[in-house]
From TrEMBL, chain B:
<feature type="transmembrane region" description="Helical">
    <location>
        <begin position="103"/>
        <end position="126"/>
    </location>
</feature>
<keyword id="KW-0813">Transport</keyword>
<feature type="transmembrane region" description="Helical">
    <location>
        <begin position="290"/>
        <end position="316"/>
    </location>
</feature>
<feature type="transmembrane region" description="Helical">
    <location>
        <begin position="138"/>
        <end position="166"/>
    </location>
</feature>
<keyword id="KW-0472">Membrane</keyword>
<feature type="domain" description="ABC transmembrane type-1">
    <location>
        <begin position="99"/>
        <end position="313"/>
    </location>
</feature>
<dbReference type="Pfam" id="PF19300">
    <property type="entry name" value="BPD_transp_1_N"/>
</dbReference>
<dbReference type="GO" id="GO:0005886">
    <property type="term" value="C:plasma membrane"/>
</dbReference>
<feature type="transmembrane region" description="Helical">
    <location>
        <begin position="186"/>
        <end position="207"/>
    </location>
</feature>
<comment type="similarity">
    <text>Belongs to the binding-protein-dependent transport system permease family.</text>
</comment>
<keyword id="KW-1003">Cell membrane</keyword>
<dbReference type="InterPro" id="IPR000515">
    <property type="entry name" value="MetI-like"/>
</dbReference>
<dbReference type="Pfam" id="PF00528">
    <property type="entry name" value="BPD_transp_1"/>
</dbReference>
<dbReference type="InterPro" id="IPR045621">
    <property type="entry name" value="BPD_transp_1_N"/>
</dbReference>
<keyword id="KW-1133">Transmembrane helix</keyword>
<dbReference type="InterPro" id="IPR035906">
    <property type="entry name" value="MetI-like_sf"/>
</dbReference>
<keyword id="KW-0812">Transmembrane</keyword>
């Protein structure tokens, strides 16, 4: 945890979300709902408000010794909500800083980062410390690739994890065996090292890592790299099941087609903020989309002739 | 596997040939006259010309380099390392007696610098940019730039002369018969040279381990482990150590050569009767049999260190173990 994020914890002013009465109306909090979106206990399972992430860094085009530190805002007053039962996709260009949303929700900050904003989990306002406690205990990450596994440790032991000292190893192991059986991974996989996994096995292992900790929210950060659309949609079936069983998924992707296929709602990410958070159904026609960038995305879809008019998406 | 062993044996033989040849050549081109070096300046002046020639003939000083090398090599293959001019004893005996002292010194320094360097490196890497890191880094930079012999002299001045905690030199107390030397005496004499040698070794290992720790902590798998709820120390304990072990082992076994080099200087400063000191004596005295013997011994020693590192690679890293098994 960096110094900056300690001096600027997610500020604890309970305005906005908590005071709004939650009914299943079509539009609130600047977003529209999908049919499956539910407000369990009258609130979102995850709510991010006015999130800003900045970095202190040295000026780049100045001689080395004269370069001063300055603050660069990468995420700027971003809002997003995850309901129970839905997959929300954050769609934006590669390298635009989407991953920082995942980092912020997980309380993983670089030492030179400054983070402002409010994050609610299950109706409770969080700060940097409590977000850290929620890692693996409510919010779980599904990372991009097998590189996120320790290359020198057997897969089974890694899926079982180390961050739950309250549960005995035997309990964790049985739980892992059940998950492996459910996701079609044989016990032999548990004895393998990450470099021995095929791409498909690796993805299921990573999902098992997340489910092992029985989360309410899964943050999936580009979980299907290099897969074509059809395979990617199938690979994300596991997250669909998780959402259908009452979880919430925050899917971070650069692939608008994939988002439209598997997500219930899409948050369009541009210039460090979510410019429009809308139900997938609204992508049926550009007239239903409010922001010019969302409309540009719509036009850029293959079935709409890849037009790039109205601003260049991605 | 048999190919691996065969290849290493060939490498080893070639290495020994090269090392012994270089030792022979260097001694023969050195300006030191073996006759003068071995009988002493005063005796040489008083000696008759005929006596000098007789000695030169006896020691083979006029035999051509190739012939001498061939003679030595033939004897070496038959297990005879020759006689040492300076110690007037079989080279094998000189090396055996001295290697024991040197190995005790090097093993102590090697283990201490390895353990301490590894611990300090992790401590600094995990606290990058904080005060602890700066102290460890400053300490390492300082030590890495300090010459070993100078540090040895400083330690002698401080701990032996001023504080009187340790003896001034040698591996056993002066004036005590060999039978009466206790293990405590030996350790007492070993302590300061070993400390000097390990303090210098720590810097290298700590800085490398620190760098590697930072790499590991920035890796994707550590980010993921932290995202699953592990603290920095938890991450280091469960994922860091095994990933840091591999480079540490390599470094540790590769550092054998450096420790060996350092031991020559340290033994000289502390008048510690080890191989390093014998090598200096042999070099200055034109004692080519002893020098070649020591060169071959130390080459074998360093080769063994690197070979062990190679084998341990496979034991620690499943990617290499299983990869090799499949190929």
């Amino acid at each position: 945890m960096g110094e900056a994020s300690k001096t600027n914890p997610l500020s604890a002013i309970p305005v906005g979300h908590a005071t709004i009465k939650h009914e299943d109306m079509q539009a609130h909090h600047h977003h529209t709902h999908a049919p499956v979106s539910r407000h369990e206990h009258g609130h979102h399972v995850l709510q991010v408000e006015d999130l800003s992430v900045g970095f202190r860094m040295y000026e780049e085009d100045v001689p080395y010794f004269r370069a001063k530190q300055r603050e660069t805002e990468v995420i700027d007053r971003l809002n997003i909500s995850v309901h129970v039962g839905e997959i929300v996709a954050v769609v934006g260009a590669s390298g635009s800083g989407k991953t920082l949303v995942a980092d912020a929700v997980l309380g993983l900050f670089e030492p030179n980062a400054t983070v402002h904003g409010r994050i609610w989990f299950d109706g409770e306002l969080q700060d940097a410390d409590s977000l850290q406690k929620l890692r693996g205990h409510g919010i779980s990450l599904v990372p991009q690739s097998v590189n996120s596994l320790d290359p020198l440790m057997k897969v089974g032991r890694q899926v079982e994890g180390f961050a739950h000292p309250d549960e005995s190893h035997a309990v964790r192991r049985r739980r892992r065996e059940k998950l492996f059986a459910r996701y079609g991974l044989s016990e032999a996989v548990a004895g393998m090292y990450p470099f021995e996994l095929s791409g498909g096995m690796a993805r299921r292992v990573l999902v098992c890592c997340a489910l092992m900790d029985d989360p309410r929210v899964i943050v999936a950060d580009e979980p299907t790299p290099g897969l074509d659309l059809e395979l990617a949609v199938r690979a994300l079936g596991d997250l669909r099941t998780f959402a259908d069983e009452g979880g919430g998924v925050l899917l971070i992707t650069h692939d608008i087609e994939l988002a439209l296929q598997v997500a219930d709602r899409v948050a369009v990410f541009e210039n460090g903020t979510v410019v429009e958070e809308t139900a997938v159904a609204n992508f049926a026609s550009p007239d239903l989309l409010e922001h010019p960038f969302s409309r540009a995305l719509w036009h850029a879809l293959p079935e709409h002739d890849f037009q790039t008019g109205g601003g260049s998406p991605c | 596997m048999p190919r691996f062993i065969a290849r290493n044996i060939v490498k080893f033989v070639l290495l020994l040939l090269a090392v012994s040849l270089v030792a022979f050549t260097l001694v023969s081109v050195s300006p030191i006259d073996p006759v003068q070096a071995n009988v002493g300046q005063a005796a040489l002046v008083n000696m008759s010309e005929a006596k000098r020639a007789q000695l030169a003939e006896y020691w083979g000083a006029n035999t051509p380099l190739w012939e001498r090398y061939a003679n030595w090599l033939t004897a070496f293959v038959q297990g005879d390392l020759g006689m040492s001019l300076r110690y007037n004893a079989p080279v094998a005996d000189v090396i055996a007696a001295r290697a024991l002292n040197s190995l005790a010194l090097m093993a102590t320094a090697w283990a201490a610098s390895g353990v301490l360097g590894f611990a300090l490196g992790i401590l600094a890497g995990a606290n990058r940019g904080r005060l602890v890191d700066r102290i460890v880094k400053g300490y390492c930079f300082l030590l890495a730039s300090v010459p070993t012999f100078w540090l040895g002299l400083v330690f002698l001045v401080v701990f032996s002369v001023q504080l009187g905690w340790f003896p001034f030199g040698f591996s056993v107390p002066i004036g005590v018969s060999a039978a009466d030397v206790t293990l405590a005496d030996a350790l007492h004499h070993l302590a300061l040279p070993a400390l000097t040698l390990s303090v210098v070794g720590v810097a290298n290992i700590a800085l490398h381990t620190r760098e590697k720790t930072i790499d590991v902590l920035e890796s994707d798998y550590v980010r993921f482990a932290r995202a699953r709820g592990l603290s920095t120390w938890g991450v280091l304990r469960h994922h860091g150590l095994r990933n840091l072990a591999l480079p540490a082992i390599t470094l540790q076994f590769a550092s054998i050569s450096e420790i060996f080099g350092g031991s020559v200087l340290v033994e000289q400063v502390f008048s510690y009767p080890g191989l390093g000191q014998a090598a200096v004596t042999a070099g200055l005295g034109g004692d080519v049999a002893l020098l070649a013997g020591i060169a071959v011994f130390s080459a074998a020693f360093v080769f063994a260190g690197n070979f062990i590192a190679n084998v341990l690679y496979g034991v620690v890293d499943p990617r290499m173990r299983k990869g090799a098994g499949r190929a």
